[in-house]
Specification:
Helices cover 91% and strands 0% of the residues. By secondary structure, the chain is mostly helical. The chain has one domain. α1 runs antiparallel to α2. The longest helix has 39 residues. The chain is rod-shaped. The two termini are 27 Å apart.
Length: 67
């Protein structure tokens, strides 16, 4: 897991909490903010996963070239 994946997971969790608090307190603005934050966290997490996969592929290619 890299930095982007971890930060994305944290943002998703914070967004989830905001969304639930917004629903519980009948605050549509907070609920919408939480949903947006959760979505942004998911995007960041996916970017992190893609970066990791590219890094792994480059490492494999480098190892194959050495052999």
């Amino acid at each position: 897991m890299n930095k982007d994946e971890l930060e994305g997971k944290v943002e998703r969790a914070k967004g989830y909490v905001k969304e639930k608090v917004g629903k519980a307190t009948d605050d549509p603005d907070l609920e919408a903010e939480g949903a947006g934050q959760r979505d942004a966290g998911a995007v960041q997490e996916n970017v992190g996963k893609a970066r990791r996969k590219v890094g792994d592929a480059v490492k494999k290619l480098g190892d194959a070239i050495k052999d």
